[in-house]
Structure formats: structure tokens, C-alpha cells
Amino acid sequence: MNTRFVTFVLLLFVWLEGNSVWAQYLPKLYQVFSPDKKLVMAIQRHNDGLLTYTFAANREVLIKESSLGFKLESQETVPSSGWKIENVSDRQVRNEWRPLWGKRAVVKDHFNELVIDLLNPAGQPERMQLVVRGYNDGFAFCYKIPEGEGECVNVQSELTAYNFAGDYTAWFYNGENHNIGPEKLTETDGTRLPVMTVKAGDRHYMAIHEACLETGAPLVLQSKGGESLFSVASKPADLSPGYTSAWRVVLYGTTPGVLTDSHLLELLNPDPDSRYDFSWVKPGLAVWDWRINGAVWDGFTYGMSYPSWVRMVDFAAEQGFKYLVLDANWYGPEFESDSDPVKGEKAQDVQRLLKYGKEKGVGIWLYLNDVGGRKYPIEKTLKQYGDWGAAGVKYGFMSGTQEEKNRWTKKITELCAQNRLLVDFHDGPVHPYGQMRTWPNAVTREYCHAQLDGHHVFEPKTFVTTVFVNMVAGPVDMNNGMFDLRQGHTTRVDESQPVPSTLVSEAARTLIIFSGVTILPDIPEYYRKYPALLNFLSAQKMPWRESRTLAGEIGEYIVMMRETDDAYLVGAATNESGRMIDLPLSFLEKGKYTVEVIEDGDDAHYLMNRESLKTTTRQLTNNDKLTLKLAPGGGACLVIKKTPSMRVREQATFPLVSPSEKMNADIKVGGKNVEIDLFDNGEKVVTAKTLQFSLDENTLKGNWTVTNQKRKSVDQTWQPVYGERSVVTDRYNEVELTLQSDENRKEMVLSVRLYDEGLAFRYAFDKLDFWNRTVTDEKTQFLFQEDCKTWVTGMAQGAYSETKLSGLKGAADRPQVIQVDDNRFVAIGEAALVDYSRMKLEKSEAGFGVQSVLSGKVNLDLAGYRSPWRYVMVAGHPGKLVENNYFVLNLNEPNQIANTNWIKPGQVIREVTLTTTGSMACIDFAAENNIAYVLFDAGWYGAEEDVKSDATTVTVDPARSKGPLDLPKVIEYANSKGVGILVYVNKKALHQQLDEILPLYKKWGIKGVKYGFVNVGDQYATAWLHQAVRKAAKYELMVDIHDEYRPTGYSRTYPNLLTQEGIRGDEESPSLDQTIYTLYNRMICGAGDYTNCYFAERVTKKMGGRAAQLAKLVAVYSPWQFVYWYDRPEKSPRRTGGAGSVESVIKTDAATRFYNSIPTVWDETRFLEGEMGKYAVVARRSGSDWYVSMLNAGDKKQISLPLDFLKNKKDYTATLYYQASEQKKDVVDIKKIKLDDRSEITIDLIGNSGCVLHLR
After folding, report:
1. How confident is the model over 991-1037, as pLDDT tens digits?
2. 884 lies in some domain
3. Residue 42: which residues within 8 A CB-CB, separation 6 or more?
4. 14 neighbors 40 (Cβ within 8 angstroms)
5. 145: which of 242, 284, 366, 1050 is 20 to 30 A away, CA to CA?
6. Global confidence as pTM
7. Are the beta carbons of 913 and 1128 closer than 8 angstroms?
8. Glycosyl-hydrolase 97 N-terminal domain spans which residues (predicted)?
9. What's the CATH code of the domain at 458?
10. For the purposes of burial, counting CB atoms within 10 Å of the CB of 908, is it exposed (0-12), middle (13-18) or buried (19 or more)?
């Protein structure tokens, strides 16, 4: 392939990106762009079937055509010429990740993804996926073998390569030795270990690594001298169904600091296992007993003794350090197999120390050598450590191949999690690959040359290389912070060389190195000897809110900033050359700060005068600049604190405007509450009074001040898997206020978003301040200026009634619509309710308004410390509130299901006889009429409320049908007809058998499950139910939730949740005015399973007639539309009474053919006109066809329908389905209407009826 041509194409694509006129002339490449469009990875398929990729950044190719795939032991290449590209799909993800601890509190998880599905018609493996993700700071790709039938195929090697476009400069990890490099790529010959950091010119830096290594050997790279090509030399696992390779990662930045600051490796790992609660994981600083052994101070000799340990614990408690690490030999000589790690020499002293540490608030780590870890049952050892109350385990000298080490490391990490133990792996551990996201207890490992390890020191240049190489992989334990830097130690057992550093550099390095536990190696007295530096250490209060490499160059120097709750800390370090560094303070927020600067003394040097330092304190702003003087091998430390005047003592107002400035909000902070005044076009609409929580029965009393604020603006669109529109606009401005209570210093975050459609806010509780706390009441109030009209229902399936705010009684379900004036309606509700207690709304205690009432207590540990969003939508018409209901979806996380091809909306018909004969007839009817699914509702596995009914068997409830029902045969027949089967399962079976039935139903070939009579409201029920949706997604099963559950937008995050009830549907025989109330109120929050009837007697006697049923099918949105709810096809067996009786037989005519053809999802939706409870006109588009639904609950009405939504009226024909006579509600009349050049159509709609105008 012509590499220059590929380069040209890539650059051309970047230049012409987004220009559809030119894009059609580009060659067929599969491109993935980073969200900011600055990076691109292009996949090319060659005639021989091989895949290659090319990587470019900022219009420059950095990795030219490089191979992908595998070579099998049979010598076949995967993929090869026989393989076909079966499907190509893409998606955009715009999430955020809030780690328990890490480099920053909030991490953007923004990427674009491409999935190429490859099919092998002639051999094994049968299928493979190449998944590519583009981030703003790099690219990643992995190989997957889908679950399913297939054979395990033996692999000889992985073909992935990195063919660099130039002879760049590289550095490599080198075990516990100095890093390899800098060396030219063409000078490298042999194998190298990651991280491989590459400098490709002054503005291009890359790092090669891997993420999420589940199987196979850890990454090894190989190169032949004289070329710039590196290939993967580590052997992968064999290819079997369900296989997923490690992610191959190319990190990229215009500075090396971007690589160090990246979170890409963690983001490629999964969230923590839901079985484990990691809220106990606390990062922090630790003192250590290893390097102090033999040190003497004022007559006291430090050693492996209880008095020494107590002295260290007292010092840690004094300084706020979280831990003491007890190193090797506390249970006996570590390499002797007779040393029992539980019953060893000092086990009793250790247990006594653990109790003492607990009293002092200092956790104790215990060392465990691999010899004791393998000879003695590791499960029992770690359980004993957990039972003792140990804080963590430092595991040393692990043996085995790298692949064996990885398996053992994962096992120990999980066992530690089970026993609430942190873990630190030492002495040649497997490289980090982002697993701290999945296992937050894996806080660090010695993936470096730790200071004085093996009695050897590292040079200054090694440190400023390690931070840009080893530390890119993840947290590293480097043991910086030695303050006794003398020329050798005659008394200390484990030191023999002076440390080539300065005091200031040693302190700075403790901040610069990222680790979940920073281990300080010296005795307390040496730290106390230098109070300014000790203050710098004590100020390192993790977890970090923010981290950023401010400046640096590989092997030269680094300047790192890390933000705590109350300060910004900066550490700088240099190599053997001294230097001056100009440091702008623009990384600070606007304001005045007190800055303490600790620098090397004028005569300081890493080989002499190491202890020389000077300290200055200045008042500076974010507009100022500091010049730092670093001695050779030296450093600098800064503690930057806000001045008292920056704290908000009186009430302060934080303004926020919507993107078009249609709406604005004033957020008022001060006193007990935070109030948000919302204005629409300059007129005040509502005041939201927030932060009126009760925790553990005690009110959170507030007196809030703002300690930090962050603002952002978002303007994007996204494409839902299905919906009421094919493209959703997501535009808002947001402010995030960090609030602190003057009463008890507790902190929480109030996030406020303002859209043109309305206001949303939510609470985030600080993990430390609110750990193990329970919210007993929330009482968020929404107050209006006068007594407004509102519409309420106490139950999700209840009838609506009209009242005034002053007349509210009991709790109303959300959303609740309130009419502020003639031209302004609001809807109050909640979004993203996943693991919290449901909010309802009751009359406010004071004024005109409503206030939140929770359906149960909220355990903040389980809720993830964030509430659902509370929102206020505002519109000039109630129909506009429903039209804008994408607002609720925007408040939820983006789609988490990678492959959504199996999620298919459509009409559903219920099989009412529960017999094989009836099922076959129903399937035939569905296939003939393009109805996608047949549902088997209650009774197919027995009496639904009987706990003994087994949902893994087909046992028809005799009270519902005599049967027989051969469901396997029915499913097989349905598959042959292209019809999907859905089944109902009651909550009793769901709670007992969920984990059993989901994989079973997948095996049976069932497409979806209707969850019935589920528990809702309290936190446990809410969390369980959404977990049940996620579990269904794992087995590619769609879900309908029935009865009292109302949606809050979760179908965006898990679109396998197609619909839900929580609505007064046709099962309740609602009058037409109730349907219209439902449309304007309930449908704001999302899809509603309305169980649409057609031939059942209730349609003509109570519900407005069959023409109205057609109109409901368009107006009431549900991706699964359940049609003919009480009806049966003509060929189904007759039943006496009830569903499927003589009166409920489906008769096919032109009206039912149209009924069967109405789409269930839409490309565009508009509410054209209407009035609450009286009438509604809704227009929906599918493709180029428009369906206009008109429902009229009042007297005869004439509706003038503007046609301005049609692009070209002459291309359309109009067909009206309506009721011509008030007496004949069972008759649907049909007529054609000529449009010509008319600008509107006039429709005469009789009372208590409906119609549909189909424009095509």
C-alpha cells in the first residue's frame, strides 16, 4: 500500500471533515476521530483480508501503516482473505467518571467508538470484532470474539505493530533499574517493556501501553535494529468465545505532561464489581519502619520493635498521616518457609499495635512475602489480617512468569477487597494497566526503581524520566521523601549510600509521584527538623480534586500541581542541571492567595549542601508569575492557600444563563439554604429552596459558603438508539458550586444546569464527610408567587385531577405540571433515578408550592453520593413540555451498551389463550401484519402471585387457560416467521430467579421480558430494578417494566429498557379527557406502555371509539406498542368472556391495516395545539411520512392544521382516518384529501373522538 497516499488521504479527510460534498470522493477507509477532531486513526482492509491502521495527530502521521490481528498455530492469519466485514457501527460516548480516589475528582470519559464485525464463513474463529476508541489524549483498540458457539483456536502470536513514521526518540521501563533511553528507535534491538514513551518532535509525544489485561501475558515489545517498527512480542491467550484482548493504547499529547495526567488507561477498565463496597478505601501518606531500622535520635534507637512502631504511630497521628507500613520480617525471616505470616515472631505485638493505631486513627499495613503467601493458605492469611483490622498488605517478591504473576496479582487484589485491605505490590510487579478503576484498593505498586531499594540510589535524571515513563502506567510506590541525606549511614541497617537529591527536591517528589499511598522513609525527628517541608507533607490531603503537569520535559524537569480541598500544592524537580522556571499562576481561579515558596538555598546541590533551603511567603493572584530557582538535582515546593477574603461570608449570588439567554437563574448562597430563582424571559417563575436535608434524623443546618466553583458549557447532539426524534440536542450551561458548612465544615457540591428548556440541579455529597450517613428527608421546595392551578395523581397509574397549589392533599407522583399564567406552564420532576429513593411532591410547608418527599431513607454509600436531578421545565404550552421531554434524557448518562443491534422497537400483540394453537395463530397474524412481537403475559409459568410458580418451566395457570402450551415449539415457529417472543415474569419469580431466568431465556431465544408488579419507591427497590435492567442487557434481553414504575430517562443509558407502564392505560378504561391529561402530564417523563385496545367492548362504551384508538397509538409514545390488548386473531381458539372472547376477535379491514402500520418510534415530534384535558394535536414524522393525531374530549371542534412542517406539499397525499358519526364509535371512516397549495387543512372533529391524518 502507498503510505504517502494514506497520509494524503488522512490529511485530506481532516481538512474536509464534515463537508459531505467532498467526503463522498474519499477512498473507503474506516476512520475514528477524537472528540476534538485533532486525532484520527484509520483502518484499512486489504485485498488479502488483512487489516492495518494509521495514526495521525494534528494533521501529521505519527504511526504509519501497521498490522493488526493474530497468527494462529495453524499459520493462518486472522483476519485473512476469506473473512468478510459483516457490519460496521459507531457511537459517541460523553460520560464522566468520579473515581473514589485518583488524580482528579471528576474525569471526562469522552470518546468516539468504531466496531468492525468480521465474519469467517469457512473456519474458526467464526467471528471477531475490532473495537477502536478515539479520545482527545489517545487511541485504543482491542479484539473480541463474541459469545456463542465456536471452538477455541490456538494462537501463535499477535500481529499488532507500531510502525512509527520517523526515527523518533524513546524511553522504556527497565525494572528496578534506571530507565532505558533516550535512544533512537532505529538503535533499539531486542525486547523492551512498557511504558514506551516516544518523543516525535517538539510538539508530539506518545506512550505505548496496554489496558484491562484479563488474559494472556503482559505486553512486551520487540524491535529489530535499524528500523522504527515495534511489534507485540507477548503471547496472547487462545481465541475462544467470549475472549477480549487487552486494549492496545497509544497515548498522545503535545507535551509529555499530557501523558502523565491522562486517565485513558483507567477509563478502559470496567467499573468496580457491584459485589464489593469500596467506600472504605482512603488514600494518604504513610510512615514506614524499613529505612529507619538502626537510626538513633537522642538516645532512642529505632528498630523492628513495638516502642518504635508506637513512636511512628504517634507521629503519623500528629501530622494527619493515615498509615504506618510494617515491612519485612515482622513475622520472621521473610524468605524462610517456616515463617508463618499469621503466627510469626511479632504477631502479638502487631495485634497490639493495630489496636493502638485504631485508637490514634492510624491504619497499619502488614508486609507479606511471596514465600509465606504461597506456602500458607493465602485466603486464610488475608482474612486474618482483615479480622485483625489491618489497613493494607504490602506484597513482596512475587515469583512466576509475567502471565502467572498477573493471575496471582488479580487473585490477591480481589481477596484483599473481600477483606477490606489495601494492597501494594513490590519487587518487580506486573505493570499497572488501569485496574485501579475496577479495584480501587490496588492503590500503588513498585513499578519503578524505589529510592534506596536494594541499597541503591537513583540519580536526579532517573526521577524526571520515571515520571514520564513508569508513572504513565499508573500509581507507583517510589519511597521519596528521605530527609537524612548524609554521606552513608553507619547505623541504619538498610541504607548504605547518600541520596543524590536536596531536601526540597525530596519533599517535592512526594507530591509529584502519583500514588494512593505515599510512603515516607525517614524518622519523625528528621521531618520535625524542617517544619516548612513537614507542613508541605501534611498539606497533601488526598484524594486530589485536580492534578496537572504544569511544565516539564522527559529527563530534564517537571512541575506538578495537585489540588486539595483547601489548597493548591506545587512540586518541582530537576535533573543534575540547575535551572530557573517561570511559573504563571493562571492555573488558579480568580482571587488572592497566600503562597508559601520553599526553594533550594543559593548554595544547594544534590552532591553537597543538600539541606540548604529558603522559605518565603507572598500574597499573589492568578495573574501573577513566580520564578523558581532549582539547584542541580534540586526542587521547589509551593503551598497556595486562599486568603480569608475569598471565602463567601455574606449571601452571594451566582448567575447562570441558558444558551440562548431565554432563561436565567440566580443561585443565592448564604444562611441555612441555597435558593435558586428561575426567570423566563425576565419574569420570575419559581424559587427552588435546596439543601434542607435531614441526615440520620438531624437536619443539616448549613450556613453555607462557596469554596470553589466550576463552570462549563455544552453544545452537542446525540443520536438515540430509538426515540421520539432521531437527533437530540443537548445544550446547557452549568455551574458546580462546592459548598462548605460553617457549622461542621462538611462539604457537598450543588450542580446546576440551565437549558433553554428548563433548570436542573442535583446534590453530590463529599465521600469523606458523608460516609455511612443516611438521608431521612430532603425537602427541596419549589415556591411560586401565587396560588397556581396544577394537575396531580397520587399513583403512577392513577387518574388526574385539577386543583390549586393550596388545595394539594397527599403526595403526587412526578412529573407535576403547574400553570403559572396563561402562557407559562412548568413541570417539576426528577431524572436519573437509579440508586436513590423516589421523589414525590407534596404541598409545601410555607407559601404556594410543592416540596419533595422521599419514598424511603437513602444510604449515601449505596447511592454513590449523588442524588438524582431535580428539574423544572418551562414552556408556553403544556404540549411543548412533552415535545421537549428529551430534556429528561439529557440528564442521564449516555448509552452504555456497545452493540445495540439487537434492540428493536415494534408493535406487540398479546397471546390471550395461552395455548399452542392460539400461539401459532397469533404468530401467523403478527407475521402477516408486520407486528414484531408476541407477548405471553401472566399465567404461562403458573399463578404469578404464587411463590412456588417456577419461571424456568412452562406450566400454564389453570385459572387462566387449560392449555396446552408448548413454548419451545412456539418460539421455534416464531423464529421461522421473523416474530420475536416476549414473556411476562412477576416480581415474586424475578426476586427469586432473576439470575437463573435471564441466561435461560436468552438460550430459549426469547427477545424480551415484561417485569410485572415490581416494587418501587425505596432505595433498595430502585437500585435492584435498575440492576435487573442492566443484567438483562448482558443477555441481550429487552425489558418492559409494569405497574407503578415511572421513567426518569434511564432508557438513554440502557436502551434495552424500551418502555414501562406507570400510566393509566386502556386496562383501566380511561375516559378520553383522562387520556389527554395523561398525554400532557405523564408523557413528559418518557415512554408509556398504554396497552392499546381496539375491538374490546370498552373501546366503544367508555373510551372514545376506534378512531380515537388509532389517534392514541400515534400520540402516546412507546417503542413497544402493545396493540389489540384484549383481542385475539380470528383463527385463535375462542374463549368465554374476558380477553379473546367472541366480542374481541380481530377483523381485518383498511383501518386495521393502517393500525398495524403505525410506527412506534419517530424521527421528529411536534405538539401543534391543544388544551389540558380537552384536546390535543400531535404530529410525528417517520422517514418522510407524517402522522397527525387529534384527540377531542369535548364537544365538536374544528381544527385548522397548518402545513408548514411539510417541506414540499405537492409531494404528499393525505388520508384521514376518523369517526364520521357520533353514534358509530366502532366505525372508522377513511377519506383522501387533496393538498394542492393549501397552507392548512381544516378538520371537523366530533366530540369524544379522535382521528389520524396520514401524510405520505
Report:
1. 999 999 999 999 999 999 999 999 999 999 999 999 999 999 999 99
2. yes
3. 6, 9, 10, 13, 29, 30, 31, 32, 53, 54, 56
4. yes
5. 1050
6. 0.61
7. yes
8. 32-269, 656-894
9. 3.20.20.70
10. buried
